[in-house]
Design goal:
The protein has about 350 residues and is α/β, with parallel strands linked by helices. The chain has two domains: about 230 residues, D-Maltodextrin-Binding Protein, domain 2, CATH 3.40.190; about 100 residues, 3-Layer(aba) Sandwich (D-Maltodextrin-Binding Protein, domain 2), CATH 3.40.190.10. The protein starts with a helix and ends in a 31-residue tail after the last helix.
């Protein structure tokens, strides 16, 4: 009973402390003049540093978009490595303002870690990659398999749940980094490598013999990924959420980085576009930002389609198909949709 009371008190204090810290996020970012963005180690197409340490990728561009919205300069971002085991403490403690590294939204993360997931920016699902020499045609052929996973990711739980629910056994082979796990898989130390389907196709293309491996058809779980912020700061969560909605809505309305100036100046442009770009409505003030915050986002990084194609779509080495997936706009059969700017 004493322990229960103590735990409850600690929980209240932690929640209060996180909330107090979080409420100051926008003010801290403005005072610092720099957005602190937690990203992963190296995931081609999503977050990857070059030889000089400069980061590029889908999730990197999202932080550039937030910096453009809040500071008026997309380059005012400091990217900090946030490993799977350290990322949540880094966010909770205020070492970073946002995690933008394909964090998967789950019940326990949303409710017990003091985190908020303002918007889903990439829809995916876990799949299984195997060597063709294994002869496995479906996941049901993997009873007793060794499975390479990375510690600290939801993959461990997903694999355990899937094999248990299908009355299959397996042996986990756990590594500290995704690169270590992939290297072990390629060398045959384990039979299966599991991650999001898009990740598997990207990694398969980087193997020395891509044709020797295949991604099985089954999708064994859904993965809803996006930026993560501390719980308790509704204004900051709104800024991050609507940054994502600007990217999506801009693609829907045909607003791009190359025509955004003309669209903003066009008095006959749709009212929602004019509000989004700050030409009317005063919407930026509702977030504590300048009214041209949406314009700055699109001018700096483009719309969702531009960000996708440049980093992980047809214009990239990764080339993850977007058509007929949930990462298409709603009007094209996907799940990407933004609320109205009204």
């Amino acid at each position: 009973m004493r322990y229960g009371l103590f735990a409850a008190v600690v929980g209240v204090l932690v929640s209060w402390n996180c909330g107090a810290q979080a409420q100051a996020t926008l003010a801290a970012v403005k005072a610092r003049g720099e957005l602190l963005c937690g990203v992963g180690e190296n995931f081609a197409g999503f977050f990857s540093p070059d030889a000089t340490g400069k980061y590029t990728g889908f999730d990197i561009d999202f932080c550039h978009a937030v910096a453009a919205a809040t500071l008026g300069d997309a380059q005012k971002v400091k990217f900090l490595s946030a490993t799977p085991s350290a990322r949540f403490p880094q966010l909770q403690s205020g070492q970073v303002d946002i995690l933008s590294r394909e964090v998967t939204d789950t019940f326990s993360r949303d409710t017990s870690l003091g985190l908020d997931f303002p918007i889903i920016t990439f829809y995916d699902g876990h799949a299984l990659m195997v060597a063709k020499s294994l002869g496995a045609k479906t996941a049901k052929d993997l009873n007793g398999a060794n499975v390479c996973t990375q510690t600290g990711l939801s993959t461990e739980v997903i694999i355990a749940d899937y094999f248990k629910s299908n009355n299959l056994t397996y042996k986990p082979v756990v590594f500290d980094s995704r690169d270590q796990a992939l290297a072990a898989f390629e060398k045959g130390r384990c039979d299966v490598f599991s991650s999001d389907r898009s990740t598997l196709f990207a990694y398969r293309s980087a193997l020395s013999n891509p044709d020797g491996f295949t991604v099985l058809d089954e999708t064994i779980s859904k993965s809803l990924n996006g930026p993560t912020v501390r719980h308790g700061d509704n204004n900051w969560a709104d800024i991050v959420r609507w940054t994502g909605y600007v990217l999506i809505a801009a693609e829907e309305f045909g607003v791009t980085s190359t025509n955004v100036d003309a669209m903003k100046a066009d008095a006959n442009a749709p009212a929602e576009v004019r509000r989004m770009l700050g030409a009317e409505g005063g919407f930026g003030q509702m977030l504590g930002l300048s009214d041209d915050w949406g314009y700055r986002i699109i001018k700096s990084v483009g719309n969702y389609g531009e960000v996708y194609d440049r980093n992980i779509g047809s214009g990239s080495k990764v080339s993850i198909p977007r058509e007929k997936t949930l990462n298409a706009l709603w009007k094209n059969g996907g799940a990407l949709i933004a609320p109205s700017f009204q």
